[in-house]
Design a protein that fits this description.
Helix content: 25-40%
Number of strands: 8
Shape: globular
Structural class: alpha/beta
Largest sheet: 5 strands, parallel
Number of helices: 10
Order of helices and strands: EHEHEHEHEHEHEHHEHH
Strand order of the largest sheet: 4-5-6-7-8
Radius of gyration: 18 Å
Length: about 280
């Protein structure tokens, strides 16, 4: 069964890739692409999507260098500052010059995330549509009605909701906002991050009903897993994240697992573009 991990982060403590000044507590331990590739080899993971880590803010150069060095193993999702007037052009630069395929936005649920409802965001959505790259969204359920309005406006943009929008196991009614988005065929969901919302030990059985409801609404053809490596190493580890799909979610059949572990990922990140023109500096 083909395994493609659509959600990992990489970084390195290296002056070539300086931490931004606003990051006052950068990670002391590395999470390099070489460490990642060792984990991939140990688990039979063929390919992986590098999601730009927040530690670097808007400087995607380390992930870009990883894409250039291993073009057959990785796709990448960049981050741009959505409040900058140049956000759309920034996305074009990271996509066309550095080989990224996708952008990630992270609107918080409180007022600091109100930029997500601003009409100033239209150019970035239009550019995402024109470039034919996915829009990945890391947020909480409170923001999903705002996302729905964008989804309705930009029907040609594939949208991937990270970690099911972090649904609380104590508030099952909040999940309805995510399930409502299943009516839009361009919306996909990562059933990852259950360890972050569970109140139990592995295999986080208090989240299984949530995953089942998402599965019933979206179907396996629009679901994908994700390790969230290296953060997952503090909890169940790479093996545990993989075994949630392979073993713990007992309502899945083999074809479901084939979709969630690989086939669905290829709909957004087909790993089909060469990077001969990449100009990483």
């Amino acid at each position: 069964m083909m395994i493609i991990d659509p959600h990992v982060h990489v970084w390195i403590n290296d002056p070539k890739y300086p931490w931004p000044s606003e990051n006052e507590n950068p990670p002391s331990e590395d999470a390099t692409v070489e460490q990642l590739m060792a984990a991939m080899a140990a688990h039979g993971t063929e390919k992986t999507v590098l999601v730009q880590v927040m530690h670097y803010r808007w400087d995607n150069r380390y992930a870009a260098d990883c894409l250039k060095r291993y073009p057959d193993r990785f796709e990448g999702v960049c981050r741009v500052n959505p409040e900058r007037p140049t956000a759309a052009d920034d996305l074009s630069r990271w996509t066309e010059d550095y080989g990224f395929r996708g952008v990630r936005l992270s609107p918080s649920a409180d007022s600091s995330g109100d930029w997500f409802v601003s009409p100033d965001l239209h150019p970035l959505w239009r550019r995402t549509r024109d470039l034919k790259v996915p829009m990945c969204i890391l947020t909480q359920s409170e923001r999903l009605p705002d996302l729905e309005r964008w989804v309705q406006r930009y029907e040609d943009v594939q949208v991937c909701i990270d970690h099911m929008a972090c649904p609380s196991v104590d508030r099952p009614e909040a999940l309805e906002k995510l399930l409502r988005l299943s009516r839009y065929p361009q919306v996909y969901v990562k059933i990852s991050g259950t360890w972050s919302v569970s109140k139990e030990d592995y295999p986080y059985r208090d989240t299984h009903a949530t995953v089942r409801r998402v599965y019933d609404a979206f179907g396996p053809e629009r679901l994908m897993w994700g390790t969230d490596w290296p953060l997952v190493e503090r909890r169940c580890g790479y093996t545990g994240a993989l075994d949630l799909v392979r073993k713990a979610f007992t309502f899945l059949n083999d074809e479901d697992r084939a979709c969630i572990l690989g086939k669905t990922v290829l709909k957004l990140w087909p790993f089909d573009r060469g990077r001969e023109k990449t100009t990483v500096g």
